[in-house]
Every structure is written in structure tokens, then in C-alpha cells.
Amino acid sequence: MVYCQAFGGYLAEVDDNDEFNKLQQFFLNSSPVDLVLIAGSDELKEETWKFQRTGVALPFKSWAPKEPNNKEGKEHCLCLDRGKGGEMNDITCSFVRIARFMCELPDST
After folding, report:
1. Which domain holds residue 75?
2. Number of C-beta neighbours around residue 68 at 10 A
3. Per-residue pLDDT tens over the stretch 29-88
4. H-helix or E-strand containing 29?
5. H-helix or E-strand containing 77?
6. Which of 51, 62, 87, 106 has a 20 to 30 A CA-CA distance from 68?
7. What is the CATH number for 75?
8. Which InterPro entries does the record associate with it (predicted)?
């Protein structure tokens, strides 16, 4: 996302369960929105979820029940969904133009 890049970052990439739990709790406790976009897409190959920035396969997924469902064959982007307990959900990528999103900044060490 251009906004994340402006701050030297990128869409948050969930690498493991610990990081997911932190992002999920932050989202559920701090954000008034229903959906928040994070890194991940299967737009290039259905059911093969990768980080957009690096092309690396997602090492961790915590899908909401019955997700990903690729509703109407149009859901290829990844979000956290408040209505599904903050779990991962696939959404249409056209939604990213109006979605809120989480950025990740590289370690400054």
C-alpha cells in the first residue's frame, strides 16, 4: 500500500502465531472498523496465498470458519474480520481502495 510505503513500511505480514495474536488483539481492542487489510493474496494462483511484497508463501494462517471461500470467485485479498472474531478472511481486492489496513515497519536495528 502506498500509505505504508510513505512511512518506509508495507502491509503487515503475519509470520507466526505470536505475531497473529498481537495483531488480532490490537485490531479487536483498538480499531472501530469491521475489516482491516493485511498482506496476503491468492490472486496469481487460487488457494496459493503469498505476501504481495515478496512473493513468499504465507507461513501462518488462522482462517475464520468456512474461509477462505473465494465468494463469487472474486476474493483474493486478506483481512482480519471483526465479525469473525478477528480471524482471517478473504475479501475482494477492489475493497482495498476503501479499506483500513495495518502497516508493518522493518526493524530499525
Report:
1. 2-7+32-104
2. 20
3. 998 889 999 999 999 999 999 999 999 999 999 999 999 999 999 999 999 999 999 999
4. helix 17-30
5. strand 75-81
6. 106
7. 3.10.100.10
8. C-type_lectin-like (IPR001304), C-type_lectin-like/link_sf (IPR016186), CTDL_fold (IPR016187)
